[in-house]
């Protein structure tokens, strides 16, 4: 019985630390954001030009049409998950396919997607 209690305590401790790492990772990713919005793009290889062009086109549409009422999304950062980072983003955000984009507003994840057009759809629905 004592071992079972220790196992439960250990599991709760690990779950709490995992959540804490996720929150710290988000804080780190948005530490220099402007207008309370950041798009983080995770890749596992250099991004293809066609993807970058498509993403830029969609972000320009969002900003030029003023779909985000609070101001433009001006922070777009790329991270290669194979580069040494302060956090293990693949594990923290449970990523397995790339590119993987996370839209963060006011310190909270509001969208996770692999398709740039999903970002436009998110702001059109708001």
Characterise the protein shown here.
- It contains four helices and four strands.
- The chain has helices at residues 2-29, 49-64, 89-92, 116-125; strands at 37-43, 75-80, 100-105, 108-113.
- The chain has a four-stranded mixed β-sheet with strand order 2-1-3-4, covered by helices on one side.
- It is globular, with a radius of gyration of 17 Å.
- The protein starts with a helix and ends with a helix.
- Mean pLDDT is 86; it is low at 7-19.
Short description:
By secondary structure, the protein is α+β, with helices and mostly antiparallel strands. It has helices spanning 2-29, 49-64, 89-92, 116-125, and strands spanning 37-43, 75-80, 100-105, 108-113.
List the helices and strands and how they pair.
Blueprint: H1 2-29, E1 37-43, H2 49-64, E2 75-80, H3 89-92, E3 100-105, E4 108-113, H4 116-125
Parallel strand pairs: 1-2
Antiparallel strand pairs: 1-3, 3-4
Helix pairs in contact: 2-4
Signal peptide: 1-20
Keywords: Signal
Protein name: Lipoprotein
Count of DSSP E strands?
4
> What is the typical, i.e. mean, pLDDT?
86
**Beta-strand percentage?**
15-25%
Count of separate DSSP helical elements: 4
Biggest sheet details = 4 strands, mixed
Key attributes of the depicted protein:
single chain; 126 residues; alpha+beta; four-stranded mixed sheet; 4 helices; 46% helix; signal
